[in-house]
């Protein structure tokens, strides 16, 4: 799989898809696919959908791993963020009109080039998140985690292995390591202009 960033118009489509999916559910309708979606929406990738109301979190659910098409992941994450986030009551129609919709698209994981001694040089803190896989174990940490905790690349590698329930140094002993990036697209105001937030 190759790395792939969303173009601005694709990010705008993703946010609109999330909003229309939630609106359909609120109207007791079956959510429909958007017409003329770029072919890239059929690529498997991770995504999070976040809802805010008056600046406060109102729902956030996602699929960190690329296990389904981007189109399907956006729709399923939107439904879950609105109606299945255990921290909140399900969204109601009157409130949704005042909510801002945000979509965080994760790039397709890009495997780090061996040997493992060079892994740290391939990781840019603040830009890259990491995913580690070994047999049935898998762990992912988003780009902001390293920044928030002050990790250097080696500590970031170790912490991602721990997240995968592996020994910290598993990245030296055969675990596959991938880097990812996140792109955030959100409405400036409810149902308003959609912009990309620069990390």
Automatic annotation (TrEMBL):
It comes from the Archaea. Residues 9-196 form the AMMECR1 domain. InterPro entries: AMMECR1, AMMECR1_dom_sf, AMMECR1_domain, AMMECR1_N, AmmeMemoSam_A, Uncharacterised_MJ0810. Signal peptide: none annotated. This is Protein MsAm2_11770. It comes from Methanolapillus ohkumae.
């Amino acid at each position: 799989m190759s790395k792939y960033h969303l173009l601005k118009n694709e990010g705008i489509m993703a946010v609109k898809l999330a909003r229309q999916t939630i609106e359909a559910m609120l109207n007791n309708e079956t959510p429909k696919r958007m017409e003329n979606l770029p072919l890239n929406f059929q690529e498997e990738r991770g995504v999070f959908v976040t809802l805010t109301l008056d600046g406060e979190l109102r729902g956030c659910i996602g699929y960190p791993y690329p296990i389904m098409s981007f189109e399907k992941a956006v729709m399923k994450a939107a439904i879950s963020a609105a109606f299945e986030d255990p921290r909140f009551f399900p969204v109601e129609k009157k409130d949704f009109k005042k909510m801002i919709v945000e979509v965080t698209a994760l790039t397709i994981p890009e495997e780090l080039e061996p040997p493992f001694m060079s892994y740290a040089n391939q990781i840019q803190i603040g830009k890259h998140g990491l995913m580690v896989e070994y047999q049935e174990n898998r762990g992912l940490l988003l780009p902001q985690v390293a920044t928030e905790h002050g990790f250097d690349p080696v500590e970031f590698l170790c912490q991602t292995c721990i997240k995968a329930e592996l020994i910290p140094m598993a990245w030296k002993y055969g675990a596959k390591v991938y880097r990812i990036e996140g792109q955030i697209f959100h409405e400036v105001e409810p149902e308003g202009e959609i912009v990309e937030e620069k990390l």
